[in-house]
Amino acid sequence: MDRIAIISDIHSNMPALEAVLADIKERGIKRIICLGDLVGKGANPKEVVDIIRNTCETVVKGNWDYLVAEVADGETMKWNNIRLDEEQIDFLKNLPLYIEFYISGKLVRMCHAAPNDVFLRIRSNCTVEEKSVLFNPPKNGAKECDVLIYGDIHVAYIQNFNQKTLINVGSVGVPLQVSQASYAILEGKLDERTEAPISFTLVRVPYDVEKAVRDAKEAKVPNFEKYSHELNYGQVYRP
Ligand SMILES: [Mn+2]
């Protein structure tokens, strides 16, 4: 069996990323795919981009990666942009929007929010009809996928419907509902077109939330109150 760890939405949170990478290593998993939103919100955009480049075999583009590297408008995006060097900006600009491969007879597609749109937000409580668009072929000649794995909403869940499986891996750096870093493990026979056993695991990893909050305060990240609320309570901040 082949095992792949899928991480997403690190948002510059180093203590959370380190805890997740240590857990992946402890389990002996060698392959890691990242579903975007490396930067934004937390204290360490530069360090996080470097670590992700060195540890992940594939990285897809998130909405924050796009906004920080390619738009850089507004206080938060500028704060992140100026902390990255030219090579890191180029790396974020050139990320693909999705990747796909076969595992245990299933065509698996992975993206940040939707295969062709980093801004389409499909929440866990959306209807099956709304969620179904994620399985559509992203370009002419592509196929409908069997399994779609995404990030963006920071809420981890697995749902089966209409012979398909939809998985959100949650967020490493700004996890909602439970204040522990979230990621997923996919296990099956890689590049196998014949159906075989396959498994999807959602993992939660405790990490030093206090340190992440302290680092962000010291770094004077924009919207610190909102960020610390999200880390401490696992809820979107509503003042
Ligand atoms: Mn995000």
UniProtKB/TrEMBL annotation:
Q: Which domain of life is it from?
A: Bacteria
- Span of domain Calcineurin-like phosphoesterase: 3-187
Which is one Gene Ontology cellular component term of this protein?
A: cytoplasm
GO MF annotation list: phosphatase activity
Similarity comment: Belongs to the metallophosphoesterase superfamily. YfcE family.
Put simply, this protein is called Metallophosphatase family protein
